[in-house]
What does this fold into?
Amino acid sequence: MLAVCLLLAFVFEFVNGFHDTANAVATVIYTHSLSPGTAVVWSGIWNALGVFFGGITVAMGIISLLPVDMLIDQNVWHSISMILALLLTAIIWNLGTWYYGIPCSSSHTLIGAILGVGLAYSLLPESGAVAVNWKKAGETGLSLLFSPLFGFSLAVSIMFILRLILKKKHIIFKEPDHQAKPPSWIRAILIFTCTTVSFFHGQNDGQKGVGLVMLILIAILPAQYAIDRSLSVDTMRNNAVQIEYFLNEIDSSKLKTTAEVEDLMMAKAKMREIAGFAAGVNSLEQLPEKIHLAIRRDILKSAKAIQGLLENGNIDLSDNNKKELKAELASLKKYTDYAPKWVIIMIALALGIGTMIGWKRIVVTIGEKIGKQHLTYAQGASAELVASSTIAAITYLGLPVSTTHVLSSGIAGSMVASKGIKNLQSGTIRNIALAWILTLPVCIVMSGVLFLFFRMIF
It folds into this structure.
């Protein structure tokens, strides 16, 4: 089952690669800056590098959408039900939209699948009332909602600025001559933007694959992967002691709700437990394997409670103490928020190889079917600049973003800036918008049904 789940995670990231290749290569192909073969290989390499150097902030953000109880469920078959539902939903929807040449967001797909599993989990008797992390879901939803609107507006603005600076008949506003390569400086800009979109796409989308693999490993091999055993046990103990110290400084009588008081008491108890686990051993390897999952449970539950207390603003700590508490908590979370190098390499290869295969369907849609005119140099560069800058900024914030929607909206914006709204092909825009609207509800229902089905048969 471990092999099956890892294979499905590889397939998901592989499909993500050829589904999203068009985001980076459509402009360099349609402006004749690179040949299709060269473009997809170049993009694949930079996608893989983006995964490798991208960190894991987005990966952990994706995982945190799920209820904490699901992430520490010691029944391996319950966890496998969750993983299979997530992966099968994401793969099926991505393949379906790719087959019909519809640019669709892998981020929307995966997040819809996660929300569906979380909601289905809330229907089970043992789950209590917890469904999903709605605060994190809200942040993610706003990121996915506004990034295409931002991409469209920014592309229009860039085109407007270029027209102010350059003459209207400048070469960058003309359709490329299919018999010749563009001028060297234009070609250099387009190749640069293709490279940055590929790299930042790897950073953002690759982390989703990393997060999925970590879910698999923690679910099936919790003793080995529940916490990062390579880190110092002394640091973990010191973090727990310091956090408990700051929590003891909080006057519980000033908290406004019973739930806040209970969170405070629970977090104190968890910190004492972690410090107790870490006492008397020289490394995490020396702890019994069952303790590793207990430490993960304590960190996740206490971190959620402490973050809630800090955000509510009802705790009577000085600004300096709040800052130090956040720093200690961030240090402690490194024990759960991690990914082994081999996981990152695996996802980098899956995304990179996928980028080099099956790219043509979406490339044709983006290059030929969004606007009624052939893509100009200015339109291609504007759309790619918008995509790369938007993805980089949102990845820095630790949020997922739809590369597909940002680039598609950027191209649409550049087309509108050239000849107005009439320059868009209404059929393609309608299909993209419909996929954008349907992705979340379809994936929520599909993953929820699959999760309950697998829970019934396992």
